[in-house]
Amino acid sequence: MPDRTKCEATLGADLGGLYFSLYESFVVMGLEWRVFSEWFRAAPERVDLLNEVSGTTALVIQNALRERTAIKLSRLTDRSSQGRNRNASLAALRNYEVTENDAILQQNVLNAQEKASNIRRIRSKRLVHADHRETLFPSDDLGASYADFDAAIKASGAVLQHFSNVYLDAHVSFDMVSSFKDDEVSFLKVIYLGLIKRDEISSELREIKNVADYEREIDRVPDYLRRRFFVDMLS
After folding, report:
1. 68-72, 84-88, 187-191, 227-231: lowest mean pLDDT where?
2. Looking at per-residue confidence, does 222 or 216 come out higher?
3. Where in the numbering of this chain does the HEPN AbiU2-like domain appear (predicted)?
4. CA 235 to each of CA 199, 229, 230, 232: distance values in angstroms, whole numbers, following the listed order
């Protein structure tokens, strides 16, 4: 992972800080898209597992990760400015004396913007703003496939990789460091094993005739897992 202090020392506080912020945002976005892909794209059995232990929670997570990725990709591939406001986007990397004649950087930015065009349309009409016509009469052509997301992410990464190679003389990694190996898969394993254990306990409870023994078994589940804490949030 690039060091912010080194980026700013090499490129100046403005350009160095911009690159580091874009890199950091890209890595977080990539992590979230990887979790989404491992849970909801990799195998139908994983979706079945999540659906078996969840009513709406898995759907909420699915939608949240997809929408967060769409918003982050849109920010990364935005124009460098809108009116008087400067955007911290990949396009802004071109607006410096040291980069303004970099034809490869220019082409990579344009490619990333083109690959993310459908995603930015969704951002503008459904996520950040609620377009009136689109809300009342949803169009069939407003959408983005998984392939669109993958291509836009890859193209955005190419911008950052080229910039790092040329201006920081470094090849960067986009992998998020985790305390656990295969974190998102390990999470699913715990759910799977927990589901098996839940079924075993349910079977055992059906065999218990003594009330005291039944209550003792129920007490194996800690209090913080027995109930909702925010029941009336929308009341």
Report:
1. 227-231
2. 222
3. 22-182
4. 34, 14, 11, 5
How far is the C-alpha of 75 from the C-alpha of 91, rounded, in Å? Answer: 10
Q: Return the ∠ at Cα 24 (arms to 19 and 30), rounded to 5°.
A: 125
The conformation of residue 231, written as its DSSP 8-state character, comes to: T
On whether the CB atoms of residues 77 and 89 are closer than 8 A, the answer is yes
pLDDT at 180: 57
- Confidence (pTM): 0.88
What's the N-to-C CA distance of the chain in angstroms? Answer: 45
Contacts of 2 (CB under 8 A, 6+ apart): 19, 20, 23, 164, 168, 170, 172
Of 90, 110, 120, 108, whose CA–CA distance to 23 is shortest? 90
Per-residue pLDDT at 230: 83
CA pair distance 197, 179, nearest whole angstrom = 26
pLDDT at 178: 57
| Partners of 85 in beta bridges | 82
Residue 202: predicted pLDDT: 75
